[in-house]
Request: fold
Amino acid sequence: MSIQETRFASFAPRDEPPVVTRWWWIRHAPVFDGHGRLYGQEDLDCDVSDTPRYKALAAYLPDDAVWIVTHLQRTHKTAQAVWAAHPDLRKADFTARQETALAEQFFGDWQGLTWAQMEERAPEAYEEFWRDPSGNAPPNGESFDDVIKRTSTAVDRITAQHAGKDIVCVAHGGSIRGAIAQALDLHHERGLSVTIDNLSVTRIDHIGGGVLNGRGRAWRVAGINMAIGAET
Reply:
């Protein structure tokens, strides 16, 4: 086989169609009292009063999906608000799988503080952190690079368990950025630069079967930070 033939062999049609697993990531609703603070894994309440937005999300999301939340109440309340806004889904009891591994970044000693308070309490650690804010961890916390690794491991496991399904995951800005970094093979510095707004939808598909790269797996990004139902 020639070099050219080898290069295109991985794109050749297969006898069986690829297995596509669709992830529908939603960032939780805005939290109360979180403005200006690094709340991370603090279990804060959230505002789910924007009923039209939840109706738009419910209409946009697939009906027959596996639902996932984290251990933090803001993901539970957001998922329940979307579920309650769907005329068909709300007829059944809401159930969602809880995945702690998809939680927000843990900021350790800095959790709940403003940036000014962090600098005041630990100026040397604060200065060191900003030398590489995506690769360095706050005191007794985890780095964003750690979040990518944690999230990627969980995503691989859940994708294998629910291959070919739709997965709606209500999570956090950090873990959704981690999933994007995994899909696009981004360095942690680039992954941290992605904007993920509250109630935005990010669609990432896992394609099994080696159709795209011949290695039995590939990721396809269908949309990032999509503002479904938001006022323009």
